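Q: Fold this one first, please.
A: Sequence and structure below.
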Amino acid sequence: CQVIVHDVNELTEKLFPIVEAMQKHFSAGSGTYYSDSIFFLSVAMHRIMPKEITQIIQVDLDLKYKTNIRELFDEFDNFPEGAVIGIAREMQPVYRHTFWQYRRENPQTKVGEPPPDGLPGFNSGVLLLNLEAMRQSKLYNQLLEPTMVQKLTEKYHFKGHLGDQDFFTMVGMEHPELFHVLDCTWNRQLCTWWRDHGYSDVFDQYFQCEGEVRIYHGNCNTPIPED
């Protein structure tokens, strides 16, 4: 087992020029803070990690594992042709909210609608990054270009504050083929904030998750159930 520690400042220095353009669209603060770049690490991981690293799992700290993480690595084998990232759906109507203007202008859209047929957006608490595929994908790398980010944010009237998650969500609306959707049991989010903030009528359609949970995600400081 080999452990390599990376210097956050060094990473940020490499990241900033790549993700600077998207920060103003997907950061909490107004403007572009240099330090915020780290919240976009996953987006450009393929440009920063050494070429010999071909796959990475990136996870949040507020997780509880109910199974061996090795099983999650097996999900890389299930990526369809052209997919570069494995990610689970967002389990709250946060993007129903964020895309309100686009949804109003496109009443038939699946954007922001709940599963199984809708596009609820993604949650970046558990990420499978196929770095080799990310490097090879012409489409994915085009989407990192400032002009493309600008074009998509304008099309979807998108203004977010969740960093990489917002970028993946917006790209997923336009190019779902870039993503392998992980089962909800690999990222069972527990936050219920949006239930009490205007979406109680539809909340459960987003929040339900069948099957034995493999990873709990105590997002928004939600307590994780004891065994």
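Q: Good. Now the second chain.
A: Here it is, same layout.
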Amino acid sequence: EPDVTIVSGLKDMVVFEGDNVTFRCQVSHENARDVEWKLQDVALQNNEMNEISVEKGKIHTLTLRKVTEQDIGTITFRVGPHTSTA
């Protein structure tokens, strides 16, 4: 299985409280396994507040809905040994 790397990393975002924010990270291969999103070192799951999806097979997205002050912090995307933060 080829080593999946990060082609295009996360970008820092500034949003207002109550808004939604979307982070995108592009990887080198489709169907990447061992992918994880974190906020302040806490693993995020797909639920009503966090939407985790994959577009066109290679673009992994995380949308945080109706952000609050508690959502301030570092977002981390990890695929295998590679990470990107914003």
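Q: Anything worth noting on the second one?
A: The longest strand covers residues 21-27.
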